[in-house]
Amino acid sequence: MRLQLRTFLLTAGAVALAACSQDLAVLNPNSADIGRALAKPADIENLLAGGFNGVVSSTTGGSNENANNSFQVMALENYSGLANFNMGPRAGLPRTPVLNFANNPGSASVSNDFNGLSRLTRSVTLALEKLSTAGTTLGTPAQDLRAQAYGKFVLGVALGDLSLSYDSASVVVPGGEAVPPLVPYDSINRAAIRMLDLALADANNPVATGTGGFPLPATWLNLSTGNVTQAQFVQIIRSYRARLRALVARNPAERAAVSWASVIADAQAGITSDISIAMNATTGWTQTWVVQHYVGTNWHVMTPFIIGMADSTGAAYESWLNQPLLNRTPFIIRTRDVRFPAGDTRAAQNVSSNGAATGSVPLPGIYYRNRLIADDGAAADGTWGFSFYDHARFQAFQNASRIGNFPHMTVAEMNGLIAEGAIRTGDFALAATAIDRSRVSRGGLPALTGAGITNLTTPVPGGNACVPRVPVRSSAGVFTTVCGNILEAMKWEKRMEMSYVSYGAWFFDSRGWGDLPEGTPIHFPVPWQEQNQRVGNKPSNVGGVGQPGGAARGTYGFP
Amino acid sequence: MTGSVARRAIAMVAVLGVTGCYTYVPTTTAPVAGADVSVALTDRGRVALGERVGPEMDQLRGRLMSSNDSSVVVSMSESVTLRGVSTKWTDEVLTLNRDYFGSIRTRILSRGRTGAVAGGLGAAAVILVVNGVVNSGGSKVNQDDSKPPVPPGGTSKIGTLNIPFRSDF
After folding, report:
1. What's the CA gap between A190 and A163, in Å, rounded?
2. Contact, A216 vs A132, CB < 8 A?
3. Which of A169, A323, A346, A391 is surrounded by the most beta carbons within 10 Å?
4. Chain B contacts of A194, Cβ < 8 Å?
């Protein structure tokens, strides 16, 4: 009986304890809690306010293990044989694919921009969604509109940059799916343009200039000019819209199909002076490539492939083009373009560079330095990548520990877009005017205006000393050079003025113009980590000669 | 190509062309019930309506059924996402709070585009007639309309005209 009673009591106790139990509920303060993080209006505004910094940090700033450094070598804007940042493999000729499988050595450069920009679209979307909930206000209607305009601008630029760099990505926008599907670049670009449309509508709303509204606080874009007025912001939005509309093209056919009337209209209503960011690593604003650029020729040297077009004699460049790829003799570029050092010998050009020694600042207006022989370093190996020239335009910025103003978007870029649109729509006079703005004043080259150019067969003025002098490859593979037409003059100006300035400065243009070496990957794949989660482990390398995503043999016939 | 087939083809593209000549314009007065409208959603509208009309929505289009100070009711015929993806709807009725949208545009016949398309079609017709591709209406080149000539390949192929459609707003 006693045993039975004990058994009963134990069982009853166990049942009672079990019945009274409940799941242990402990608040995990490390778990993301969006509601708590954005509980106060100031939280929403603060999250949005860092948006543009997120764009810069994910593209031209932040880590050097990024896509931009690859784009530079892929577009012949830079040459480095180093494996760092996977530049060497990306720079190699003939071109090889961007590999995209687990733990491949270049995966960090593929994933950096994708991850950063995608994260940014999510955080900005969360802030915009929170701001749109009933009863939520930052303080005044003007302040709300300013934040919405800025948030949509950031979203448009982030999506736009994804559309430029990747074959596909997710469109994360307010009211979108929790896990949006991967969609192709043209689809992303349409969403980006639409977000900029909406940003423009909010920025142009007269209410946005009321109490608490425009200007944008200086830290939001961190421009060298401080606060950004409503009018300036509208110009910046329109400039970005022009850029993204034009640069998304993957080949000449897509470039030709761009809405050039829209591009011209936006570029003409865009920025009227260069906009520069006040860079300082301690405040989180960086132009990250610069730190490596000026280390030495292992990291940066100008291959003659593109800058050789400055060779006004034509003969030296032509000879170089016809030498075996791995056994090319560097040559003196003698040119009328005053952005290059003057002189017929290396020693003379050392002097006119006024900064031939590593670390010394070139004369104002000189973009390229003919370095001292002593600084040639190990890169003087006779391959196609080597030349006597370095891009030294931003040496002073480097010498100032990269604290100071660095151009982010230039009027020259807008002029280039206007000129290209004008050429494609038959307005050669407008194109000549736009090109001459830098061609004459900065390049010291003969004006196109008044030269009677009304087609694409007339060479630029300059006679035998013309710039640019472009390669022509025969069916037998022999190169000659000829004076370029007005389209080539536009390309030349854009390359000279945008070099090492903006995201994919040469790459996105060269892709659309059909100027990349054959087989160059036209974009990056979705990083394998994301791809495996989405669609499983499938082959997704991009590019290589004759391979999917590889550029066709281009305008200049480069291998 | 026989005359009647060509006439039918031209009639078809003409109808399609005129359909494509509509455009949405900002309203200067409150749209009346029955008007064809395009509603541009706000972020709030996108979030609130996501479950009913789908994600990423930009524009909702349809016939305005009623309107008051706090909402409008639309019989939906089309939705367009921020990526420009268009989806047809079959008159589903949707009530939109005023804070769900930023603007309403009404659909009108675009005189300029209609004129351009009509002019283009007219010119095309003249060219076809002049070149003898289409009989002007009297005697028929091929007397047997019911049996179009069969090419050596064994199939009968009718040429098509592509008229670009635009519905800017």
Report:
1. 9
2. no
3. A169
4. 58, 82-84
DSSP, res A418 = H
Q: Kindly report the average pLDDT of chain A as a whole number.
A: 94
Q: Cα B162 to chain center, whole Å?
A: 14
How many Å apart are CA A294 and CA A291, to the nearest integer? 6
Torsion over CA: A391, A393, A394, A400 (sign): positive
Cβ–Cβ contact B83 with A under 8 A: yes
Per-residue burial over A325-355, b = 16 or more CB atoms within 10 Å of its CB, e = otherwise: eeebebbbbbbbbbbbbbbeebeebbebbbb
Nearest CA in chain B to A178: B55
Distance between CA atoms of residues A415 and A431, nearest Å: 8
pLDDT at B134: 52
Q: Do A134 and B57 touch (CB under 8 A)?
A: no
B75: pLDDT confidence band, cut at 50, 70 and 90? very high
User: Taking the complete model, does pTM exceed 0.90, yes or no?
Assistant: no
User: Can you give the pLDDT at residue B9?
Assistant: 58
> Are A174 and A199 spatial neighbours (Cβ–Cβ below 8 Å)?
no
Closest CA to A60 of A522, A496, A505: A505
Distances, alpha carbon A84 to alpha carbons A70, A72, A387, A401, B10, in Å: 10, 13, 20, 22, 63
Tell me if residue B32 falls in helix, strand or coil.
coil
Measure the CA–CA gap between B30 and B36, rounded to whole angstroms: 12
H or E segment to which residue A91 belongs: helix A87-91
**If contacts are CB pairs under 8 Å, which of residues 113-132 in chain A contact chain B?**
128-129, 131-132
Which positions in chain B touch A133 (Cβ < 8 Å)?
44, 47
- Cα–Cα dist A75/A497, whole Å: 15
* Cα–Cα distance, A184 to A166 (Å, whole number): 8
CA distance A63 to A287: 9
Confidence of residue B128 (pLDDT cuts 50, 70, 90): low
What span, in angstroms and rounded, lies between the C-alpha atoms of A518 and A543?
Answer: 9
Say yes or no for a CB contact (<8 Å) between A180 and B82: no
- Separation of alpha carbons A464 and A466, rounded Å: 6
Q: What is the pLDDT of residues A393-409, one digit of tens each?
A: 999 999 999 999 999 99
pLDDT in tens, A62-115: 999 999 999 999 999 999 999 999 999 999 999 999 999 998 989 999 999 999
Angle at A555 between CA A552 and CA A558, to 5 degrees: 70
Token pair of A218, please? 């200086």
Say if residues B41 and B60 touch (Cβ distance below 8 Å).
Answer: yes
